Amino acid sequence: SSIFAKFTIDGHSGILRVKPGETLDYETTPTHFVTVVAKDGGGKYKGKHQVLTSTATVTVNVLDAQDMPPSFVGTPYFGYIYEVSVPGSEIYTVSAKDGDQGNPNPIYYSIVNGSDGVFDINSTSGCIFLSTHPSMLNNELYEIKVKASEVGPNSQPLDYDITTVTVRVVDLNNHPPTFYGENGPQSKFKVTMYEHPPAGEILRGFKITVNDSDQGANAKFKLRLVGPSRVLRVVPQTVLNEAQVTIIVEDASGIDYEKGPTLSFKLLAVEIDTPERFSATADILINLLDTNDNVPIFTSEYYIARVPENSPGGSSVVAVTANDPDSGSWGEVKYTIYGSGSDLFAIHPSTGLIITQPWTSLDAEMRSKYNFYVKAEDSEGKYSIAEVFVSVLDMNDHPPEFDEEFQEKTMIIGTPVKVQAVDDDAESPNNVIEYSIMTADPDNAFDINADTGEIQLKPFIKSMEIVQNITKQKDCKWSLVVQARDRGSPSFSTTAVINIDITEATPLKGPMAAFLMKSRDNPLRALGIVTFIILVLVGVTVLISTVMYMRNSKSNRIMPVRRIIKRGPRDQQTWKFKIPVIKLSTPAEKFLISDPVSSPPQETSSPRLKPIPPIAPCLPPPPPSNIRANERPRAVPTISGALTSKSSKKAKPGRRKEANISSALVSELKMKLEQKINENNQGYY
Known about the structure:
By secondary structure, the chain is mostly beta strands. It has 5 helices and 43 strands. A hairpin with a 5-residue loop joins β33 and β34 (383-393). The longest helix is centred in the last third of the chain and has 33 residues, at 523-555. This is Cadherin- member 1.
């Protein structure tokens, strides 16, 4: 019965059970694969009623039970007794296996009947051996009934099987090996199969049996397969009497339809230990069926094509070819192209010929290189890819052109002037220009460099005197017609009229003179360079000014201070003030101060002192403030000075007026300094 008839599942709990009345047989099907489908209740999704499902595969492994009897393997059995055999010689070994392969029991072998007392069997190995001398045998053919019994855990016999072992007594080696088919002896065997079978697969289409009717060593031979190396192998390689021949795939790559639709082998059976070395040969022929096992392969990984520009639409570019060795529709190739550069091209789907689109116009000056991909695909979608590179060949379709047909030039004697033409063609030699002088006025006065277009005077024209002698005019303006011709085929040319004003070199020297000389024919370029230099200088000046302004603003910043902290300046010379002690006898003497250091002690009491000129005040000490670590302390303005008298002698009456004027000046200076100090202190605090 089918799998669905053996299992049932609970629709709600999902429990999988064996259907009542059904049984599972390990020997028939040891493993079952059950696909379970889970469905929801359904509902609307995107306006439609849908039921969502999911599937799972359940693998059911069946455990073996003791319900099968043992069975013999390799029946029918044939054994042989030879004239040279001795008691104890092995005749044949039978083999039986428990039908319950999952948990097999040991097998016990025994002879039921037919031994006639001349044969015995090993109960464990199943080996039948001769128990007497061959001369004691009365029959040429014996049929021995052998029993194979299962032995339970307690050595009790269980199920059993009985087979017949035919034993033939052989006297002479008079039978060669023989191959048999389903209908008797056969020397040629054929089979049809698909190419590339997996390695290790048995070619079951062959039904081959080999037999040697001799007995003993005369019936022992080897099997060998002769043909393409290591493609197939034969089992068994050594046969005694008779065996079923099995042919197995060893190297699947050798079974390839594209290499050959047929394979031929020779099957040999050669006796081993007989003097006669009898043998037999059978032909093995394999007819292969093709499969789509190959992809189309291009003849090259990339193709290079060259197309002249301005070619008409539909022009051939290149033909690509891909080969698929498969037969029939599998070997038919279809071509397509794709890629960023493929829009201008088309390909024939069968021939692989690439052409330009009907509306395509290739221009080497616009774009000279194209690349795209071409795809070769068979009927089942197997494909390969190659890349195509297309170069557009430049044609000479542009003549040289001067900027102006009439040009004005200034030539300094000894220095050339240059004319230039441009050819828009893409490649050499179409865009290579040669210059020549067609006509000149005066004649034979100029030379031109054919490659660069530089025009210069003949070597003998070295001064304005020679020029004026040639022209007989004062303006010294000559003209010539210059031709520019490309090197393409066919060649194109154009002309320009050049008016040249001849002058002598200026006495200017240095780099500025050289610059002006070079720029005489292009004043706009010179003006642009000068403007650029001026802008650079202005920019540098603005940058330096900005940096200085920021620095001064930072250094002049005044921070508010709530209290005065008297702190001496670091690493600064101490300010020393020498204030003399003055005793005044009259009010007018307050402006006459003696220097106690410079005046002798005996002269300090003089009523009339010589006035001294005022001394300029020194810098004041710094005010208390927040002093930064990397800044020097600022000085606070103050008054410092010493008013002394250099002479204690009585002043002359003529100098009295001068002393009064000096004293008044000192007083006024002192008042102004004190006022300035107060204003500064208010600003600091």
